[in-house]
Amino acid sequence: xxxxxxxxxxxxxxxxxxxxxxxxxxxxxxxxxxxxxxxxxxxxxxxxxxxxxxxxxxxxxxxxxxxxxxxxxxxxxxxxxxxxxxxxxxxxxxxxxxxxxxxxxxxxxxxxxxxxxxxxxxxxxxxxxxxxxxxxxxxxxxxxxxxxxxxxxxxxxxxxxxxxxxxxxxxxxxxxxxxxxxxxxxxxxxxxxxxxxxxxxxxxxxxxxxxxxxxxxxxxxxxxxxxxxxxxxxxxxxxxxxxxxxxxxxxxxxxxxxxxxxxxxxxxxxxxxx
Amino acid sequence: xxxxxxxxxxxxxxxxxxxxxxxxxxxxxxxxxxxxxxxxxxxxxxxxxxxxxxxxxxxxxxxxxxxxxxxxxxxxxxxxxxxxxxxxxxxxxxxxxxxxxxxxxxxxxxxxxxxxxxxxxxxxxxxxxxxxxxxxxxxxxxxxxxxxxxxxxxxxxxxxxxxxxxxxxxxxxxxxxxxxxxxxxxxxxxxxxxxxxxxxxxxxxxxxxxxxxxxxxxxxxxxxxxxxxxxxxxxxxxxxxxxxxxxxxxxxxxxxxxxxxxxxxxxxxxxxxxxxxxxxxxxxxxxxxxxxxxxxxxxxxxxxxxxx
Lengths: 274, 308
Known about the structure:
The structure holds two protein chains of two kinds. Chain A contains twelve helices and no strands. Chain A starts with a helix and ends with a helix. Chain B is an alpha/beta fold. Classes of the chains: A mainly alpha, B alpha/beta. At the A-B interface, α1 and α7 of A face α2 and α3 of B.
């Protein structure tokens, strides 16, 4: 398994895809950090009864606050854009796993007696590692940018570190769960176009579907609590969230990671390689 | 008895209830160049895919190097190299980079294996050309280089000469022969280009509609397909004596009650008729018969009669 990972890293570092993905990703994060256009989590309160002018005024105040963010507050603000970073998983998933199916190179590996389970994990693990790297960049880069622009904003405290790790920890778990689903989609469909379409649908469709269902019956809107991207955005406001929501998010991650991986392996072990 | 490299027992693959491979019992011995012959869609590729575990079988067993358990087959497949259909490698990498990728993946410590594999297939002077810019012949050769990278004992080549130009075909043939003769590698090679296969194969398996209808050695094929004069007479015993004495040859054999096959005098059948008639044997028919591999294959798959 380790040999497959090593070989994939050899291949990927010789291609352009990884550099382009991370180039765009870093530019995106830095731009967000500099422009301060990140959204701060999600609104947990009701907006009914508030006028449009009040919402606009509140948003402008928020913007002003963000653009003045120092090194200590930047990570919490940037946690709000993690929902946008999940799209960067797509090129990574295709690079590591999808390419083998589109180029047919998977048969060179499987015909040599390498077990399909090992192969699956060898493709999954680098994607998970790079998902963690994305999160680390999302934490570190804005902190550096904000510190350069407005200072760190006080002394470094353990409480601050724990808060940051809590927010980014749960968000990273959610990213890993999304990555597991992405890799499952690769082994299910094996075609780049299908992988792209299904993965984007998985990220985008639930919000829309549950919103529409919510218009039919408000109870159905609660299904959105089981959507990974919604939870990812929700966890940006980790410190303000009730512990029940956080436990729910943990369980949701565990469910998607376990079910996604097991289903992926089962599907792959039964599938014929064309 | 030859050591068996591959043995299949009632190997079957069904697609939507229809057999693509139907109860195939095939044996490949160590040192064979086994030519798997069949029309397009006969089941050659499906059979190779099952052997290489790319697809699972619906029924039957595969025994590779004496191993037939899941763990044993996994071990045995490490001794196998293969090119299934079009060689698949990473388009953005050069030949050397592609082989380096697989060297790392297969856990081969010796870096010089790449150079020797490229040398064996004649791909040393291609510079930094990427795989996507290779001609089909170069791709086939790099596929073969990948197959031999791990120093396998058994190579499976699915239609390795498809799309090659005449020079490419000759080079590929020489490389395959060399691998077999010099390195003792057992080879299973599928093709529907029979003239080419007949130049290198030592054993043949003919597959039709998923069934392995015939397995035979090169000498059996030669015997089956040797051209001869088929003479039907009223008395084969008397005819045999005349052929030996008057025609002065022992290169003949009796087939059935009324037929004698004479492997000489192909250019002079009238002399045979004359001598037999002179000796009091009535000649009913005399005709030149015999098949090359193509005729033989055609007769087998089309249910025709094998003449010789």
